[in-house]
Amino acid sequence: MKNIIFDFEYLAPKTLEEALTLLSQYDEDERKVIAGGQSLLIIMRQKLITPKYLIDIKGLTDLDYIKFDKKEGLKIGALTIHRAVEKSPVIQKEFSVLSEMEQNLSNVETRNWGTIGGDIAHSDPCGDPIPVLIALNARLKMTGLNGERIVDAEDFAVDFYETVLQHDELLTEIQVPILPPNTGVKFTKYNQIEGDLALASVAMSITLDENKKTCSDVRIGLGGVAPAPMRAKKAEDILKGKKITDALLVEAGQAASEEASPTTDIQASEEYRRELVKVLVKRVGSEALARAEKA
Amino acid sequence: MKKQLKFVVNGNPYDIWIEPRLLLVQVLRDELGLKGTHRACDEGCCCVCTVNIDGKAVKSCSVLAMQANGKEVTTIEGMKNGAELHPIQQAFVDNWAFQCGFCTSGQIMASNALLKENPTPTREEVQHAMDGHLCRCTGYNMINEAIRDAAGRLQAQKAQEKTK
Amino acid sequence: MSEYSIIGKPTKNVDGPAKVSGEAVYTFDMTLPNMLYGKLLRSPYPHARIISIDTSEAEKLQGVKAVITGKDTPGGRYGLWRRFPELCDQTTLAMDKVRFIGDAVAAVAAVSTEIAEQALDFINVEYELLPAVFEPLEAIKDDAPLIHDDCSNNINITRHVEWGDVDEGFKNSDYVREDRFIYGNQATASTEVHNSLASYEKSTGRLTVWSSTQSPYYLQLGLSDALKMREGDIRVIKPHVGGGFGGKNSTMPDSLNAAVLSMKTGRPVKIVYNREEEFTCTERRTAMNMAVKLGLKKDGTIMAREVKLITDGGAYTALGPTALYLTGTYASLPYKIPNYRYDGLRAYTNKMWATSVRSFGATEAGFAFEAQMDRAAHDLGIDPIEIRRKNAMTPGYEAPGQYSVGSCGLSECIDKVEKRVKEKWTGLAEDEGVGYACFDYQCGGIFNWIDTPYAFSGAMVKVNIDGTVDLFTQASDIGQGTNTVSVMICAEELGVGIEDIRLHPADTATTPVDLGAWASRETMMNGNAIKEAAAEVKKILIRVARLKLAENIVYDFEAKNKRIYLAIRPERGFSYYDIVKDAIKENDGQALIGIGHYTPHRKGMVTPAWAFGCMASRVKVDREIGHVKVKEIIVAHDCGQPINPLGVRGQVEGSIHLGMGWGLCEEQPNDNGMILNPSFADYKVVRTRDMPQIELHEVLTYDPEGPFGAKESAEGAVAPTPASIANAIYQATGAEINSNTLKPEKVLNAIREAEKKKPAKR
Lengths: 295, 164, 762
Description:
The structure holds three protein chains of three kinds.
Chain A: E1 9-11, H1 16-25, E2 31-34, H2 40-45, E3 53-56, E4 66-69, E5 73-77, H3 82-87, H4 89-94, H5 96-103, H6 108-111, H7 116-122, H8 129-135, E6 139-144, E7 147-152, E8 157-159, E9 162-163, E10 169-176, E11 183-190, E12 200-208, E13 215-223, E14 230-231, H9 233-239, H10 246-259, H11 270-294
Parallel strand pairs in A: 1-3, 2-3
Antiparallel strand pairs in A: 4-5, 5-10, 6-7, 6-10, 8-9, 11-12, 12-13, 13-14
Helix pairs in contact in A: 9-10, 10-11
Chain B: E1 3-9, E2 12-18, H1 24-31, E3 50-53, E4 56-59, E5 72-74, H2 87-94, H3 104-117, H4 123-129, H5 141-163
Chain C: H1 16-20, E1 36-42, E2 48-54, H2 56-60, E3 64-69, E4 97-98, E5 104-110, H3 113-120, E6 124-129, H4 136-139, E7 155-163, H5 166-171, E8 175-183, E9 186-187, E10 195-201, E11 206-211, H6 216-227, E12 234-237, H7 253-265, E13 269-272, H8 275-280, E14 284-285, E15 287-296, E16 302-314, H9 320-330, E17 339-348, E18 354-355, H10 362-380, H11 384-391, E19 398-399, E20 403-404, H12 410-424, E21 432-442, E22 457-463, E23 469-473, H13 482-494, E24 501-505, H14 522-549, E25 557-560, E26 563-566, E27 573-575, H15 576-586, E28 592-598, E29 610-622, E30 627-640, H16 645-664, E31 670-671, E32 674-675, E33 693-700, H17 720-733, H18 744-757
Helix pairs in contact in C: 6-7, 9-10, 10-17, 13-14, 14-15, 16-17
């Protein structure tokens, strides 16, 4: 079986500051950060990367937290394991879509060790968290020795496995604002095998006006259909300010499928992935609408 | 350069020095000789290597051994009570919940964690919890029944202990 | 038949306690003192001549103990179709050329796997690239590159089967249809990878090999042929095996090179594949391109069938011809065909070779046949169940010159499934469909392609003074439960308990030959051998009991529940344990030994008996994305007499799982010889959430050829699974799909095609 067959120096900083110091101390190509390692260890076992230094931040328990405030919203420490997000009573109550997303993210064993921050920083184009965070209008806090930066979730991932994180920064917190009133959020991903990586995924947040008639705001996150998770703004424009009907959702789905830039690979063709976007936007939109109406 | 790893495995404390590149499954199998945990893939996709860390089901191939420092690990070898099979193990035997048996340790360790968290799971809840486990022999349904049978036995055992 | 005390009763797996406690030892877990670790260097090219190999740098590395190439091996040719020496086309390492990406060219033994792996990078191979060919139809063209110099047109083997007059049959048909079916490459993907541990003893010239194998005997033969050693100087021991599914019948480079490296170093050597090697450098299911013509009368009676088949054999022969041969048989079953013709061809290509994989031939032939039956039924206005019932195989049928059918409960199975579907599946939801498929499977093979002089299965029973029994059988339990079945059959025959028997399995030095676990042969063949061996001892015990009772010679004795007693007056008898003591005393103190063998005779060319069944799948189709959800399966199954109902259920459900994978999602896309998805991340298999509830019914037909009437249950249910699912999709949407897998994208496209034609909703 494949193991890690090259040697590296193992460093386990005890504080965030120590970790950041190590990051700036070593060249980007020489070192790698490991949190849960659910993705990283596989890549290292395949010898796709061979860092000389491995900086283990899993022990930074200060970054493992879930905090909720009625005004500030939700703050999740980057080193919170997926399973904690999935099972958190406050998340299940206030941001159930996050818990639902986690329930189908890989499997229990991965979720028991892998962290949500590690997953986001790894930035798999088919990853589940970022489309949901886009729909939730979430922001991501990055910390370096020189201070903190905050970016919108939709701006965090820029290309295949590439993010805006600077070489001496760590993702430290996920911030989700309180949902506006009359908002419903839904996430669905599709793959032939239940729970598998998404061939395409859609997260939608629909906010209705005070009469619950027209859509005052909408956010659509797409996963698996572009080099990085993306926001479908043209599709949003079709829905915003209008009364959402099935026909309108179909139109939005069409727009989203055109905005996306999926590729053909051994699992599915570009055409099929676009088709999935079309159908999923329609279905997810319909469910998000129902949730908004109930909210 | 070797690093110190102090952890507890199946109730036994270990203080060993290992190369930090080792995966937990390598330490368990090769350093400690606990061969009951098997390996079937190189991509963290099959859950055959599942053990418990602090009571949670985790893939031992996807944990850097150094990260188990200070933790309590339970492997399949830690399930028996002396010579007696654990109720989950017995339920697997009674329900023909394995065939070649190569994935069985992982299935049992995952069940162990599941039943601690959810003592009376439904068929769907078991399916969901065991979703990551790859088995080429059984078709999964008999495993599912064994786990729910084990749940019943553990509940009965608990009830019995209460009345004592 | 009389009531059995053990046969037919749910019995726990005799290996259970070991397997659930992590104590069962697999080759994967084994180490020996002073052991070295081996790794194989593999060709990155699909077709190339080896100009030179320089191993000097690798040999210099610290920790490397030996590096070998083809010239360092005895160079013997080996294969499974040994009856035809030209088909023994493999060697321990590539000698003059490589024929697929992954073909082994060198091997290293070192003190750790890491060092062995690193050493591979230091071996320099100079290749001369040769043009390669990947499609069978291209490979058999005159201008195609020759893959094996002694095989013109890359035609590995052909097969022709014929009876009746097919052209007349079509002339007399009211309805004729022609379809083409295409099946892709798939993996066996056992959880335990291929791995072997070899230990050569220089002083005696004897080799011992432990391996994850389906057949210790076949491995012994392969080692003997390749290493040019006497079979008897090679001992193969099969520990527990983590699955095989047909992919571990062949002798592989892991065992061969571990052996040669052990010979060279004088130390035990272990070679373990990684999962990527497992997907790319072992064996795959045979891909097929099948043209089928079916002719029927307007009342649905089958008149004729013609099948033309080309299979993608890959670089070597292995058990590929068996898949070719058997497809020719299975395409004539499970319905009666008065006029039949089959022409099959296996072509070499520059890919990993194709072999026999669970339900080989039956799954492919069944998919085609069942699809045609449904479509014919639709066109003729006949109910899909009725058309099957009308043509169903019956007991005593003879396929001229080919095979005969003994017991057959197919009609009863059809009736049972029809009844249950009517009772249970009332009110189908929109986009739900029910699909049917009938099936059959053999109980081992008769054609002696391995060219063995031995009986196909042998067993030995030794009864000790205290009544305990040692049972020796080479039969391979690879998960299907053969160990338990073996013990059960022995216990039933001798009248003892499971707990009285110790099984000594799968060691070529201590057990008589058994051909191994393939084509569902173990229960029939090994079971019969064990029954005979136990019966020999029982004869002795009965003789002793008869003498003691001094009863009338016409009266029978029985051995059951640890007693030997008069059948007509059960209370008159003795404890088995007392009789054993007396028998050994009377035998000059020698333990009681019984030997049994089984080779099918006068049973045609294919198999001694056939199992049958019928399956219905209830499926929901998402018309917008093509997703197929199998909601429930009802299957009725005739395996003669289930020896262990728990084991039978396990086998049927396991078969259904693999059938679902074969039908829905398991694919190995190939690009110029490179397999594109060599990991479980990308090779999709069915997981627990996708498994439907399965309702299984047994129809007992008691075949006299089988031990206690038993027939196979290990492979039959694979074939009807994808077939019935495809038929359910057809029934729900009109979509006709003539290839696997039924991936959502393909299903969606097929639904759209069907919508264009606008068939009537069923």
